Amino acid sequence: MAEQEEEWHPSEALATDHAARKLWLVKVPAFVAKRWKTCCDQSVERGEAVGRPLATLRLVQAADEGGQPRTQYQLQLDAAVGAGIPAEFVMKNTTKFADPMLAFADKGGELAAEGKVWQKFDCEVARKTPAGGAAAGGKVVLDPEYRKLSRQRHQAAAAKTRTVQYLQDTKLVGAPTTVQIGQKRKEVSEKRDRMDARELTAILFRLFEKQPRWSFPQLQKDTHQPTQHLKEVLGEIAVKNLRGPYKDLWELKKEYKTGGAEQQQEQAQ
């Protein structure tokens, strides 16, 4: 009996016309990606062949922390798109830390290779520094929309999302407290359960209100969290000092320090 040959469809092939094209991979904050997606969905609903402008890429001359001039890319959101959120971002080149990557696209059911990532950037909210730079003693000015957003995140993280009910008799019948191996008794090791990220963030904020700097073992002792989970949540709101008198101690990021001070002033008024 003759074998039946499978039918080949051109749509199943991988289009490689642009596989060698050099691309930029730009990572933007979640609130920017969400706003862009909303604009694109609206353009699709209206049947627009070309959507509205989302942002402008600029090459500007800026000063580093030491006041030395340097060239950097900035991303400026369109006025209509960036209403209510930070609109100006600094693009930090992180290409040397990125793994080799290729970009693919689905074009009407046909998979196509769009190119390889040549440059990678991470966008951060721009901070304005007076003439002479921060080294000259000038105060760094944060974007007001970003300060508002940080304050909202702080308030949301501090809100209680669960309640605790205390029982009079917490003794569990038949629950072993030790494990016996041969003639030796070994205590059961304490298991650290992962806490909800928002609840853990609220606890960390309260700890930093007690004192500005903490070592990681101290924070882990007070939160009873697994090492990796605590590092991930802690890294969202705090930074670790790598040098100086407070080496290896964690403290809140500048934007959260500013937001907390403003919130205390509003409550006092």
From TrEMBL:
InterPro entries reported in the protein's UniProt record: TFIIF_beta, TFIIF_beta_HTH, TFIIF_beta_N, TFIIF_interaction, WH-like_DNA-bd_sf, WH_DNA-bd_sf
**GO BP annotations listed:** transcription initiation at RNA polymerase II promoter
Spans traversing the lipid bilayer: none
Q: Where is the TFIIF beta subunit N-terminal domain?
A: 21-113
Q: Which UniProt keywords are given for this protein, alphabetically ordered?
A: DNA-binding, Nucleus, Transcription, Transcription regulation
Q: Which GO terms describe its cellular component?
A: transcription factor TFIIF complex
Superkingdom of the organism of origin: Eukaryota
Name of one Pfam family that matches: TFIIF_beta_N
The UniProt entry lists the main location of this chain as nucleus
GO molecular-function terms, A-Z: DNA binding
Q: Where in the cell is it found?
A: Nucleus
Q: Which residue intervals define the domain TFIIF beta subunit HTH in the entry?
A: 194-257
Checking PANTHER family in the record gives: GENERAL TRANSCRIPTION FACTOR IIF SUBUNIT 2
The similarity comment for this entry is: Belongs to the TFIIF beta subunit family.
Q: Please state what the protein is called.
A: Transcription initiation factor IIF subunit beta
Q: Which organism is it from?
A: Chlorella ohadii
